[in-house]
Amino acid sequence: MSIKIDESWEKLLAKEFNSEYFKSLILFVKEDYINTTCYPKGSQIFNAFDSCPVSNLKVVIIGQDPYHGKNQANGLSFSVNKGISHPPSLINIFKEVEADLGHKYREKNGDLSKWAKQGVMLLNSTLTVKEALPGSHQNKGWEIFTNNVIEIISSETNNTVFLLWGSFAKKKRKLIDTTKHKILESGHPSPLSANRGYWFGNKHFSECNSYLESIGKNKIDWSL
């Protein structure tokens, strides 16, 4: 499995790609993709990077694992391929966007590529997963890689908005220079968290846009 990734990221991440942990990780991933069914498809493993070059980066949304159901994952956190029913967390994200900004969503379009192309990096902590086995590719090296990615973004960009949803994402705060970036935190959009009052009403989408406009950047069109 060769690494194909947007050129701007390739330069920044060359040290990671040449590291021993990453070489071991890729061997593991390659073997699992050959011997089992894994997601997303190989060409989309680095979709979060390919869809959002460094120069375009404005916002980072951190997820945990890719979806592990058939045809769901497309390499962007919380996103699913067009035609696939919306998973519960994505439904709650869309409900909050609608309450916050008034945008309604079509039932069979949960592909967040439009967000990514505007500068929203939809980054999972683990970039691959075995079918029907959530967490199956955790603790193999992906977390080291994506933590380093977050630190590189913190170092190499300015005034980036980090949306940290849930306790897992909030732990990434320590990787971010809070003196030069904007951090918005809330509960996770999963039903367990959202239904206990930790997600709905966070107004992260309008707050993000207000901040971007305040620093002279174009706001994100969160509609699909």
Secondary structure elements and pairings:
Blueprint: H1 7-12, H2 14-17, H3 20-35, E1 38-39, H4 47-50, E2 59-63, H5 88-101, H6 113-117, E3 120-124, E4 129-130, H7 142-156, E5 161-165, H8 166-170, E6 182-186, H9 191-194, H10 204-214
Parallel strand pairs: 2-3, 2-5, 5-6
Antiparallel strand pairs: 1-4
Question: What does this 3D model show about the protein?
Answer:
The protein is of the alpha/beta class. The protein contains ten helices and six strands, in the order H-H-H-E-H-E-H-H-E-E-H-E-H-E-H-H. The chain has helices at 7-12, 14-17, 20-35, 47-50, 88-101, 113-117, 142-156, 166-170, 191-194, 204-214; strands at residues 38-39, 59-63, 120-124, 129-130, 161-165, 182-186. The strands form two sheets. Strands 3-2-5-6 form a four-stranded parallel β-sheet. The longest helix is centred in the first third of the chain and has 16 residues, at 20-35. It is globular. The two termini are 33 Å apart.
Tally of strands: 6
Secondary structure category: alpha/beta
Q: How would you sum up the major sheet?
A: 4 strands, parallel
Shape: globular
Low-confidence stretches: none
Helix fraction by DSSP (H/I, runs of at least 4): 25-40%
Q: What is the CA-CA span between the terminal residues?
A: 33 Å
- In spatial order, strands of the major sheet run 3-2-5-6
Average residue pLDDT: 96
Count of individual helical segments: 10
Order of helices and strands: HHHEHEHHEEHEHEHH
Oligomer: single chain
Radius of gyration: 17 Å
**Strand-residue fraction?**
5-15%
